[in-house]
Amino acid sequence: MRCTSCKSGNLNPSYLDKLFRAHTCDNCGGNWVLIEDYVSWKENNPEHEFVAVEVESVEDSDKAILCPMTGTIMRKLHISKDSQHKVDYSVAVGGVWLDKGEWELLKAAGMAGSLNGILTQQWQTKIQDEKAYQTFESLYLSKFGEQDYEKIKELREWLTNHPRKSDLRSYLLADDPYSAKR
Ligand SMILES: [Zn+2]
Q1: CA of 118 to the centre of ligand 1 (A)
Q2: Are residues 143 and 166 in the same domain?
Q3: What's the CA-to-centroid distance between 165 and ligand 1, angstroms?
Q4: How far is the CA of 65 from the centre of ligand 1 (A)?
Q5: CA 58 / ligand 1 centre spacing (Å)
Q6: In which domain, by residue range, is 165 found?
Q7: CA of 131 to the centre of ligand 1 (A)
Q8: pLDDT in tens, 8-40
Q9: pTM over 0.85
Q10: Which residues lie across from 14 on neighbouring strands?
Q11: Which of 10, 23, 86, 125 could form a disulfide with 76 if both were Cys (CB 3.0 to 4.6 A apart)?
């Protein structure tokens, strides 16, 4: 099998971390993992604890990678909300491409034990929601400043949970709540 990432190496049968079956590129050191191999290993080794290792900076390319088995474009999936890194996933065969160092990155992020979980729509949606939250939070922080942001958050929470919230909101937003004119 040819490596579709560096396009010049061969993917040779290997064991990732001496744990489960994979294919490793003899040129770029990337790994191709079939999720069924990962899951069946995990089922047989439920107690396995992953040891996080020092991770050197891992290059993350945004380029599309083709599935080495089918030649179709793989999907980019987020690892976690705190990581910019994405892994490439072939929906067609249920395989994941990990660039050199990305497995170590997964271990450091505490995600090595849930590689199959990363691939689920629920997980990806959750990460996207969290990322959106972070984006808005930093936007509000820079717009309002820390003090006012805290204040308005408190006010909003109080208002949202109040049984008379729509009356309170009208009062708050009216130019003059004591004027008969609208
Ligand atoms: Zn390669």
Answers
A1: 23
A2: yes
A3: 59
A4: 11
A5: 15
A6: 126-173
A7: 31
A8: 999 999 999 999 999 999 999 999 999 999 999
A9: no
A10: 22
A11: 86
Quote the ligand 1 centre to 96 CA distance (angstroms).
14
Q: Which two tokens stand for residue 69?
A: 């088995």
Domain count, the chain: 2
Distance from the CA of 60 to the center of ligand 1, in angstroms? 14
The residues pairing with 176 across neighbouring beta strands, listed in sequence order, are none
At 182, the pLDDT band (50, 70, 90 cuts) reads: low
Q: Which residues pair with 11 in a beta bridge?
A: 25
Cα gap 98→14, rounded to integer Å:
14
If asked whether residues 136 and 100 sit together in one domain, one would say no
What's the gap between Cα 126 and its chain centre? 8
Asked if residue 145 is part of any domain, the answer here is yes
Residue with tokens 């959750």: 126
Secondary structure (3-state) at 83: coil
Give residue 24 CA to ligand 1 midpoint distance, Å.
8
Say whether both 65 and 137 belong to one domain. Answer: no
- CA neighbours closer than 13 Å in the CB half-sphere of residue 131: 13
Establish if 87 belongs to a structural domain.
Answer: yes
Q: What would the pLDDT profile of 105-146 be if each residue is shown by its tens digit? A: 999 888 899 899 988 888 888 888 998 999 999 999 999 999
Residue 83 C-alpha to ligand 1 middle, in angstroms?
Answer: 23
| Domain shared by 29 and 80, yes or no | yes
For residue 146, the model assigns a pLDDT of 96
- Based on the fold, state whether residues 109 and 136 are members of the same structural domain: no
pLDDT of residue 79 exceeding 90, the answer is no
Same domain, 48 and 135: no
- Dist. CA 59 → ligand 1 center (Å): 13
